[in-house]
Here is the input.
Amino acid sequence: MKIKKESLQAPKGTRDLRGRELILWRRVSDIAESIARYYGFAEIRTPHFEHSEVFSASLGETTDIVEKEMYSFRTRGGDPLTLRPEGTVPAVRAYFEHGMLSEPQPILLYYNASFFRHEAPQKFRYREFGQFGMEVLGEDLAVAEASIIRIFSLIFKELGIEAELELNTMGDKECRPEWRKELISYYKKHLEKLCKDCKRRFKENPLRLLDCKEPGCQEFKQKAPSMLEYVCADCKAHFKEVLEFMDALEMPYRLNNNLVRGLDYYTRTVFEFVVTLKTTKEDGIVEERRVEIGGGGRYDYL
Here is the structure.
């Protein structure tokens, strides 16, 4: 049997790591892992694939990952499995499977692994990609997310990356419904002007309207109702404590009312680290682009 020429190339959306790029990859991994271990995090390695329902039930049926990006398949025995698209859900699954709930809390875990999403290949985005993450399991207090944010900032500092921290709260099941209701009412007035994906999000998962990156939808995002206007007393107190930790640690931050995470399991605090990339075009105009290099949040209901 002859092998087609295209079969001798890495599959679309993947790449080989070698030479200088692999050396840089290893350096980033070594720094991230060593700092995580210094602060008491233990490595966990979960399987490359999980039962499909673990992701569909946890991430949300209407998220882009579940609807369009998961690599799902059936075994010869008919079992539905999915290549892991992210690391939090497998870590939480392992937490319960291995009885970590009965161990001294909190449980501190980190992972550094490959993940898989069927995205449109573009610069800096691959269908198989490496991701480093940390999880604090079994801690209700705001110190959990404050610790994660602080450690990530130290990793970026060690790598020589100047990243800006953005923070927001998404409330919880008590106060989020009222915000969701107001968000729907606001966007309903502008529905015809939204992009195709946002029209779908409006029907299926309105909170994700604030996650849109299309230029034509940015104006509507800026004027959308803020969760901070509807947050309940408990969520407000929790978020205030997170901000007090940031102040005590002398960590600059920016409140971003439009910051949401694309997965359904997030509650209360959400955060992102972003960098500004500058590109000089042929006509001499400097073009700036903000890129997220890390993010996360709390997930009390997962």
Notes: DSSP finds nine helices and ten strands in the chain. The two ends are 49 Å apart (CA to CA).
